[in-house]
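Worked example 3 (structure in, sequence out).
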């Protein structure tokens, strides 16, 4: 629904502007015509235009949006619906304003005689190189509906893998946030109450209590800005350093070697590589082009560099499995399965099986990691609360001794 405005004349002859909410200018005109004697030109409200532009600017095309579009487009093309008509129908149904605008523009270009992949390449915010390359392969081979179905499956698998990790980490993150808030609340509001009691009684305070009182005073004063500013500055410097080639390489290498999470990061990257590479080769994309496209989806610079080096080896006539093995990044099992795929001529099928295997491994690793993190967090929360309570109750013993 949009907001429209028009000059109207009521039955007494008075002329004024009237706003109306409707799904189209025609519907707005029909509603106003039934209410007033005369209706002028229908225009979209400036407020509605501003809101639409803001919504378009803030919206982002998600993997789910692309997966749903790919699935629906595949069904329509397979049913014999013309590409231009299918794009127009899906644009009308698209809930995402950015995707809707892109589909309308793509439909107009295809109607003028341009290829679908060429039109999509002009909207990188909606369709990346992976998507465009697969569509181009589908157009060339005359199997666009099959390729779109594979794209939908690929995007659904990628979304599933991400959601598994997000959902598993959601609980620890929420518990951690509440733990920090509870610690800050007790430190800022509870400790000062005890501080007043200790001051009145003149009790001798142990070192732990003095430290907690100091921390409470710091958090309640302007000095709290110092650690907050330090944290924000460190975060900014970290992001800036990660954007540099050397920084990205060092940090990504650490992500692969860090305790507990390193193995999970490696398996996730291998699963993405094999899933995307297998889908691309099955869709008819040349192998060397597959390497270029896959590098944009891996998400780890160390593995990207290894894949790039492997590509140079393959350009000279080497095998994919041997080229990857030289980089010593991929697990031996993945290399062996890829080697078997090359020998049997079923590389795409074997890549998909490797991806299935490591996606299952990621799922199991996430569950195991969660089972480890949860009790550790409970111990950490208990430790924080216990430290605060202990620091407040320790002086009580000296007070009791004085009273005795």
């Amino acid at each position: 629904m949009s907001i429209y405005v028009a000059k109207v004349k009521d039955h007494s002859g008075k002329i004024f502007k009237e706003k109306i909410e409707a799904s189209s200018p025609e519907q707005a005109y029909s509603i106003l015509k039934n209410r007033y004697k005369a209706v002028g030109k229908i225009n979209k409200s400036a407020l509605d235009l501003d809101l639409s532009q803001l919504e378009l600017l803030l919206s982002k095309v998600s993997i789910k949006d692309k997966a749903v579009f790919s699935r629906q487009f595949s069904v329509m093309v397979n049913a014999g619906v013309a590409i231009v008509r299918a794009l127009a129908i899906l644009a009308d149904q698209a809930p995402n304003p950015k995707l809707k605008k892109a589909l309308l523009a793509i439909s107009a270009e295809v109607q003028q005689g341009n290829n679908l992949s060429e039109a999509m390449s002009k909207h990188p915010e909606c369709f990346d190189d992976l998507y465009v390359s697969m569509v181009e392969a589908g157009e060339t081979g005359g199997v666009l509906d099959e390729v779109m179905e594979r794209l939908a499956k690929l995007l659904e698998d990628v979304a599933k893998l991400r959601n598994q990790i997000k959902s598993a980490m959601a609980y620890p993150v929420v518990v951690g946030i509440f733990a920090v808030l509870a610690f800050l609340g007790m430190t800022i509001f509870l400790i000062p109450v005890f501080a007043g009691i200790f001051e009145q009684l003149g009790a001798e305070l142990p070192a732990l209590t003095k430290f907690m009182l100091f921390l409470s005073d710091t958090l309640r004063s302007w000095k709290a800005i110092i650690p907050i500013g330090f944290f924000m500055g460190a975060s900014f410097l970290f992001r800036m350093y990660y954007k540099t080639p050397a920084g990205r390489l060092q940090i990504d290498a650490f992500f692969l070697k860090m305790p507990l999470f390193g193995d999970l990061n490696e398996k996730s990257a291998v699963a993405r590589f094999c899933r995307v590479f297998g889908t691309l080769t099955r869709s008819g994309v040349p192998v060397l082009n597959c390497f270029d496209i896959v590098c944009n989806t891996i998400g780890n610079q160390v593995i990207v560099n290894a894949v790039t080096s492997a590509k140079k080896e393959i350009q000279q006539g080497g095998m994919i499995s041997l080229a990857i093995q030289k980089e010593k990044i991929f697990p031996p099992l993945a290399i062996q399965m890829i080697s078997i795929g090359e020998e049997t001529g079923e590389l795409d099928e074997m890549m998909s099986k490797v991806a299935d295997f490591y996606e299952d491994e990621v799922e199991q690793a996430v569950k195991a990691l969660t089972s480890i993190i949860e009790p550790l967090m409970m111990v950490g929360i208990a430790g924080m609360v216990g430290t605060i309570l202990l620091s407040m109750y320790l002086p009580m013993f000296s007070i009791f001794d004085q009273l005795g």
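Notes: The chain has a mean pLDDT of 80. The beta strands are 2-9, 15-22, 38-39, 43-44.
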